[in-house]
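Q: Got a minute? One more chain.
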Amino acid sequence: MKTLTPAAQRVLDVAAELFYAKGIHAVGVDTIAAEAGVTKKTLYDRFGSKDELVGQYLAQRDERWRAHVREVVARSPRTSAVRRPLLVFDALEEWMAHETARGCGFVNAHAELPERDHPGRRVIQAQKEWQLAYFRELVAGLRNPARLAESLFILLEGATVAESLQVVPGAVANAKRLARQLLEAAA
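A: Always. Here it is, folded:
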C-alpha cells in the first residue's frame, strides 16, 4: 500500500472504524470526511471514490491480519508440522478478542459488494487466497496437503463466523480441536 498523507491516513482510519462497525453502505463520505476533519474534496482527492477508499480499507485490514498471523506463528519457531497450522487458530482467537463486534470484516464487506469488479472484492479474494496458500505452506510435507489446507481454511472461516455470531460458544477452540485431529491423521 502506498504512503498516505496524514489527512489521508485519518480518512482511512475513520473509514475503517466506521465501515467495520456500521457497514460499508451505511456510512457515507460526508460522515467519513466530517469525522476525519477533512473536506469531501480532500477525501476524493486522496482516494478518488468511496469504492477506492473501501478497497484501501480492506487492503490495510489484510496487511494487519497477515502481519498478525505471521507474528503469532513466528513466536513458536520450533513448533512441529502438526502444531504450526494450529497457531493460525491461536492468531484468530487473539484477533477476535479485540474485534468481536462484527466478525470477519472481509466476509461482511463481501456481502455488501455484489459487483465483481469492485476494488474491495479484489482485495477480499486476494486475502482469502492468501489464507489458503498460507495453510498450504504450513502443511507442506503432510499427507494430502492440498485437501488438508482446504479443510483448515474452511474450519477457520466457519469458526470466525460462528464465534462472531456467538452461536457456538468457543467456536475457534472447537475448530482448532477438529483441525488438530485432521493434522494428526495427516502426519
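A: DSSP finds nine helices and no strands in the chain.
Q: Perfect, thanks.
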